């Protein structure tokens, strides 16, 4: 039995990777006297790791959550999108518990293999709490994140 038959890597990354100017890329970055930069670029490095995982050929699921919030899970409608675009809500955050639940569901359902997507939730009280994780994925219509967008360090 090969390793790819028994492994399914589920990676929690970050939303925002298509925008090189995202504020997360500025943390720890300094401009040197010669104009070059050092440090920072966390989303670029995360995106590079994601692309590396994809290129390995192992079964994977990559989740890009929006801003993480410390509120109870299983109470909100979850929304998947790709490439930092989500037409279902303007909200850009998601409870940590819901991120963990999506990652567990990815391990339970074959349909999640080979997929990469963004995850946010509708605000509390708006929509219906997500319980059907196959329908949630199907709503993407087969779309996945496009790794030709953004910069890879």
From TrEMBL:
GO terms for molecular function: oxidoreductase activity. Coiled coil: none annotated. Residues 9-110 form the NAD(P)-binding domain. Pfam families: NAD_binding_10. InterPro entries: NAD(P)-bd_dom, NAD(P)-bd_dom_sf, SARED1-like. This is NAD(P)-binding domain-containing protein.
